[in-house]
Amino acid sequence: MVGVKDSWTDVTPQQRAESTQIRQTDERAIQRDLARFSKKATGRLTKHVPRETCIVRIPATAQDGYFRLVLCDEKKKVLTACPVFRIASATADSSVVRGAGLRMMPIELGVKVGSTIASAAVSKYTGGPIRGAIGSRVKKYGEKAMKAQKLGAKAYETSGLDKHVQEHQKQYDEALRNHYKPMDVREGTFPLSGVQSPEIQIIGSDTGPDEPFPIKFQGLTVPGTGRSKADLDMPTANLRHVPEHIKVRMPGVYIAWAQVVVEPSSNLDISQDWHEAIVTIAPLVHEIPSVVPRNKVVVHILQDFEDASFVGCQVNVMLMAFVRPAAVPRTLDEARDVQSRDILVAMVSLGRAQWQADEAMFLEAGKDSQQHGQRTIAERLTDLRLKVQDQVDRIPVHLMGLRTDSASIRDEGYGQGGLWIVR
Known about the structure:
This protein is of the alpha+beta class.
């Protein structure tokens, strides 16, 4: 309806970028479009001057359909709008039509019609003699399979497992959403008091870390730019293969324990003890701006490894407490000042008896054992399915145009995103 803005989705770009920071092919395409507009412009359009290029991110919640970008002022008064365009994702089900309008419906249904004709053709050419030749053998083994299927279904119902599976199906959707739901660091036990204070405050109580800590995960060290080592003179591990829900749910800076795992066949002489560490989960400071800023996990280990490189080694991490939100320092001096404060907070807070690495591991093991004993079969099925989902989410099916439920839920944690370039 004209004038109704309830269905609008705010896609205002959140980060500024330079034209040199985007792909050259994209910049050339933008310049071609601007040149084409200037060449065809007439009347008042000849006085138009390019001011900004906006690269927007349309969230998955918009789903498939027809859209148009609207440029408006602060009061949502429409200044101009682009032509209507369509967003569509692929699906493995040929009977599903995604985002098609009435004019495009025949083309969309062509996929379904094609699959129906193909099925009819196969049935036509595999009937008659072929069906008669193998029909008796199929019937023989089919009867045995049917009996086994009925016996299995009967045992399944008698065991009561079907009730647990049904309960699990009800729990899984909510569990998956909570699995990727961003953690609000301003609620619960997350200590934010004293972050802006000039005094160094101890985080948490002397009895140990509060829930949900400690949180344990691991990742593989990959080569970095070397700038943090050069600027801050601290061993730094950039981790890959960290569970996606950790990166999506928990942005910020944490105090932690870190352990470098060295393969027995390696010649590296690196301490494999647990060391104090500062973990930052945020987009890399020196990374080129992107339309969808992705959080990376960077571990600053408070230990002198004497310039030894542990690239390719696995690093185990135990997050102990939240320190502060991640922020980009304006100057190198400011970065070093923040680093000094974080180091003092980590050393003082982790130096207490109940905050030691072995105590944290014992606490985590006891928590897992207690939860495992109290969990129902449905809850265990949900936990197992979430672990499997973490592995499945590593497969980049979005490159094929496929949109999964978990990807749509995970998409909510990426923020608004988008880039704008001054012309």
